[in-house]
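User: Thanks for the earlier help. One more: 3-demethylubiquinone-9 3-methyltransferase. Can you show the sequence and predicted structure together?

Assistant: Of course, both are below.
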Amino acid sequence: MSLPRHLKETLNSAAHSGPSLSVAQRSNLWPVTAWGYAWWRAHSLTLLGGQAFGLEREAALFSNLCRPQPSQSWLDAGTSTGFYAGVLARAGCRVLAADLSGPMLAEAQRREPSHQPSEQMDGGQIDWAMLNLEASGLPDASFDGVTVGATLNETNDPARFLRELVRLTRPGGQLWLMYLPRTAGPLQTLLSTPALGGLSFHDPAWVARQLPGCQRTDLLHVGAVVFERYEKVGAARLG
């Protein structure tokens, strides 16, 4: 018997109706994971892509395509150690940096101390929140833009996660995704099993179908990693 279409394309058979946590998400609750994650984040695209691709290059790619503007409101969904939150704050944006891991948020705040609410720089500010963004409880259309740096691979229910991000994005706003796409290789199959991480690996066509009312404007491959930019249909984006 063949697998249902969504399981073929995401390689995650363990998505649940409620916001449960995958093994990968649970591991992010450990302080040791937060301690080591910053090193991995700085080197991961170079290791996965087979070419030098550090954080400065990633920040430049994001800034050139998304062009965040001062005073815009952004959500960094699954901020981990705060990379995209910091990029946005330095562009003058107000950022809600959300993660379900307290240790990750603590490490992120340590790495981005110049953008605390009491010490704004060029209008940029980061507010930190412990949230499961499969069911955030935040108001509709709260943000001009949303960034997702690899959280899509770790979340327990990726379809629900993406629908929630669309709900939170204002008409005319944008969504930036970075994730490992589906290859159906043996390592991905292994890591997608619940006991060994419960990771999800997504075909870009499947991702696009989970974003109703959004149009993809950019799709880039950097080795094993995909970057995508979407705009939510509505009023024209400023900038």
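User: Great, one quick takeaway?

Assistant: The longest helix spans residues 31-49.
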